[in-house]
Amino acid sequence: MTIHQSIQHRTDVIFDSLVRLRRDFHRHPELSGEEGRTAAVITNYLKELGLEVYKGIGGHGVVGVLRGDGTGKKIAWRADMDALSMEVNDDQLFSSIHNDIHHFCGHDVHMTIALGIANNLVHHKEDIKGTVFFIFQPSEENYQGAKAMINDGLLDLIDPDEIYGTHISPMPVGLVASKPGFLFADYKKITITFREPAQETGLEAYTKELFVDLQNRKDESSFWDTRNLMDPEIGIGNPKTIFHDYITVRSDFEVIHKDGDIQVTSMVSASSKAIMDSIPIKLRDKINESSYKALLKHIKFAEKGLLYSTQRANIQNDPTLAKNAIRTMSEIYGDDHAIPLYGVIPDGRGDDFAYFQDKIPGVYFLLGGSNFKKGIIAMPHSLGFRVDEGSIKAGVNYFSTLLLEQTNK
To answer: Which UniProt keywords apply (predicted)?
Structure first.
């Protein structure tokens, strides 16, 4: 039996216990900053596995440390812990004990997968040359937990070479996917400031039109229907996807007349960092060709946004690690299970895992949780959110294999 066959066998052995664990998390969801019970369950599980455990990091954050039997790379795996405030009818047999707090984003599954990976790798400790850190992060839903853990000394406690994490997605169960660079579009608020002319010259209308002209997707485009993200012909899994190289512009402008200036602000999104960074340059070039050139004061990314601020980090996968990770899992589990993505999701999603990526090169994966034949659609934050629990087995297998391979490189 190969090591990876042994990993799959171990996952089969512990699968039923992992399902029970997931359902316990699901029944007892806790909001951001209130994850005390969740942290206690995680802490006890990790201690029973024999890991070094640290708790109370950045709130209710927990870290487990698995040291292998040799000298290898130090790899971190992150799972988020908090739940959502939602008024929904959760009619599952293991539904939440609360009417208005639910794990309708899949964090219960994420934690269970992380604990399953820890269980599996402890069982194969003699095959691990390096060190694996398991980071259980609070307060993801409010985008505060990762920064809180970092500010509380997480990276003084552990010093990983790489970091990985995943999120349940509406892809079919059994699929795992990722890509270099952005997985989600970045959103920034941009302000253009002019000296306001003494007489009305159409400057405000001109500036709004500048922003509107940035958008490179027509109103009638299939791009706007997010159901097309999964389309085999134009979706994010096809090299010919329509969800790439785009800029979109929100229609609600903010206009301020102050101290003889006029400031016009818009929220823009872009599918890559390079495109986002180019937007102020594009705007300046256009203005320099206009009659308003002499009135321009500055163009800048604003600190406070209509939706997000420029301080909101965005997922930015390390190109080499992302390609290698998908290749590693596809070679072992098949290229019909681990697939590369080509498009960038444009509907405002994000994850503060990005703050870890600011410090450590890493990769964020999408893990399929849907079973369309059973009517199970794992669309996070949706009222009908459900997860095929087979995704737990898939996640534990794929990521145990990945972490083992990475620590030994």
So the answer is: Hydrolase
Q: Does the pTM exceed 0.90?
A: yes
66 strand-pairing partners: 132
Maximum Cα interatomic distance, the chain, rounded to a whole number of Å: 82
Query: What angle is formed at CA 150 by the lines to CA 144 and CA 156, rounded to 5 degrees?
Result: 165
Catalytic residue annotation: 80, 141
Structural domain count, the chain: 2
Distance of CA 116 to the CA centre of its chain: 20
Domain of 120, in residue numbers: 3-182+314-407
**How many whole angstroms separate alpha carbon 299 and alpha carbon 287?**
10
How far apart are alpha carbons 409 and 96 in whole angstroms? Answer: 42
CATH of the domain at 200: 3.30.70.260
Residue 311 is predicted with a pLDDT of 55
CB-based burial label for 129 (10 Å; 0-12, 13-18, 19+): middle
Task: Count CB-CB contacts under 10 A for residue 206.
Answer: 16
**Cα atoms in the 13 Å half-sphere on the side-chain side of 311:** 5
* CA–CA dist 3, 127 (Å, integer): 8
**Interatomic CA distance for residues 236 and 230, integer angstroms:** 7
pLDDT tens, residue by residue, 161-211? 999 999 999 999 999 999 999 999 999 999 999 999 988 789 999 999 999
pLDDT tens per residue, range 329-340: 999 999 999 999
* 99 and 63 fall within a common domain: yes
C-alpha to C-alpha distance for 126 and 95, rounded to whole angstroms:
39
